[in-house]
Amino acid sequence: MNIAVPAPHIVENKIICFNPVGYPPKVAKKSLAPRLESLDGKTVYLIDSRFDDSIELLKEVANWFASHMPAVTVRLVSLAGYYGRDDQELWSEIKANGHAAIIGVGHCSTCAPAVSTHAITMETKFGIPTVAIHTSMFDKVVRSVTRMGGLPDSPCVFVPQPVMGKSAPELRADVEGNDPVTGAPVMREIIEALTGNVASKHPAESERSTPRFVEAATEAELHDLFLRNNWTDQLPIVLPTQERVAAMLAATSQQADKVVGRMQPTPNRGSWEYTVEKVAVNAVMAGARPEYFPVILALAASEVTARGSTSSSGSAMVVVNGPIRQQIGMNCGIGAMGPYNHANATIGRAYGLLSQNLQGGSVAGDTFMGSLGNAYTYNSITFAENEERSPWEPLHVQRGYKAEDSVVSVFFGCRSTTFGLGLRKDYWREHVRDMLVAVDTVTAPVLLLDPITARQFIDRGGFDTKQKLIRFIHETAQMPAGRYWDMQLVQNYIYPNATLGVEPLATRLKAKPDELIPMFLEEAINVVVVGGETNGYWQIMGAKHRATVSIDDWR
Questions:
Q1: Structural domains of the chain, with CATH
Q2: Most buried of the four, 127, 195, 385, 412, by CB within 10 Å?
Q3: Pairing between strand 259-263 and 315-321?
Q4: Cis (ω within 30 of 0) for the bond into 105?
């Protein structure tokens, strides 16, 4: 395959390159609620974010008030639902019955932004003096959130990481100790944030824009610039010159200045905007050929980031269906999920690069907080479904498209994987059940089946449609209710919705501890056929379907 790269545009021995960064959101400046003169005789709400033992630390805050400021009435409450839900009913209750709020704890890369966003909502929309408690690991994260939220001086107090799993005496020591970011006593900071004049510590956010080009420089200087600015995936890139970007743009009928979408590392970080041209710049950097560009545009249009800043270190997975698979030479056979095909590799890499650059960054310790990291993020496990060798309808047809449509689907998770070889005659059902128990419960199983295994599922179980197989997986993946509801991830993300009455979770919550309940929602389970039939190996990937987008719309 010829992968010739156009020569760069050179002016006086210097190269002109495009800037790969998206356009930041406009920030509307907001103001803090009036502070209280004193907390004496006042009611302060302590709001549990419902993440990883946050309530245990807030109990120690309540104990501190009882011991040191008994004239303060403290009400300890929990958010209704998971931590990202805007709990308008609770904010209204606090406005009616309280005087101030302390919300926490923000101690993951998604709950910390949510906690500070809730604090801003209470301050600016309900007039409630509020302070947010976070762990020090997320100092940069929440400062970014408060800036983007228009309230950079939103009070934040920090305690040591972690909160989860600590004993009451350990948490009490954190509450009675010093803020690891400022060095000041934690409780003194909280009281002063609710009562005194909160001095502005941050300059007003100036209007920001993204230049179209970077300053002309030599090839070596530009490569160094892109690396220093964290615009790469730490691997060499193709410089996005005018000629190369023009060639990429010629592969679509869309106008270069058309807005494709908006993206952010996590909710509450501020959605950055990007155009067709910006996507083309990142596609060039990844080494993609112009004929791949409609697929890359469709991925950008999904608005699902491949560089999500979850501390659980998730990765995207991309499945391409329809005629475009053959048109651009994608691999759906031997080694389809590995580094053995130019289209698969560079489309996936482009998705990662555009995600990090167009959402405003993916920098470890700032806009990326994945504790372990995930090697899958290098190309987001990008492959085509083996429709020709599959005994069932392809994924995009299941999603409502026609077989002749070209479509891309995005999944996210990819933190848990199990694999097996074929299906044994006697105990294959039990073997499948054992594999399913290893899938994390907050995503869902995606069965990645070699065609050999797909046919075996028909031979062994009579699953002549994907839906019949999915029903079997749903009924097989079960766990005792007590064990299921005790899992930390379930407590964080599923249990809050069950308590809100969301079905079928609410009904499952009523099950006795030893009663078996399904681990996953049936509609969340997916099956994809991929592989080259060198053997009947197959995998179960824990990943949640996030979007399916037409590629034809972006030709």
A1: 43-194 (3.40.50), 219-477+519-554 (no CATH)
A2: 385
A3: unpaired
A4: yes
